[in-house]
Amino acid sequence: MLGAAQDNESFDAMIASILNAYQPPVQSTSRAVVESLPRLKVQPAKEQPSTGASAAAASGAAGSAGDTAAAQGTGAGPSAPASAEARPAGYAACYAGEQCSVCHDKYTENEEVLELPCQHCYHEGCILPWLEQVRTHSICLLHTL
User: Considering the entire predicted model, what is its pTM?
Assistant: First the structure.
């Protein structure tokens, strides 16, 4: 009986040693891909809708056309995302006042950020350590990096 227990302990120790020595292959983002990612400026803060009857009247006339365009999927209107075509050249998809999902600091207007192909933005110093470890984006799991 004692021999079987010693064999189990030896086997457990051997398995533990193998598991402790295992290092999964690192699939970091290539330096060329990281260097090709655009460094863009943060857009000015979005205008917050005003409250009150005058704002409702103003948005009723102008907003209905934009809402209709958004509902038809044309990309225009208040709920449309900031696609690369709809934003000014040299600006990222993020806006001043939004937070970097890594450090939680708010972006400031014209601050330089790194934009991933999925249009998520980060401070360069925040996202580079992640990209040095993996090729997938942590939020949307984009695997084209």
Answer: 0.58
Burial class (CB in 10 A: 0-12, 13-18, 19+), 82: middle
Can you spell out the DSSP letters for 71-115?
Answer: HTTSS-STT----TTTS-TTEEEEETTPBPTTT-PBP-TT-EEEE
How many structural domains compose the chain? 1
The domain spanning residue 34 has which CATH number? 3.30.40
- Predicted pLDDT at 90: 95
Query: CA of 40: how far to CAs of 7, 50, 139, in Å?
Result: 61, 29, 20
**Residue 96 within a domain:** yes
Highest mean pLDDT among 41-45, 70-74, 140-144: 41-45
- 120's torsion region: left (phi>0), alpha (psi -120 to 50) or beta? beta
107 closest CA partner among 95, 119, 125, 91: 95
Which tokens go with 30?
């290539």
CB 126 within 8 A of CB 106: no
Quick one: tokens of 115?
């934009």
Amino acid identity, position 116: L
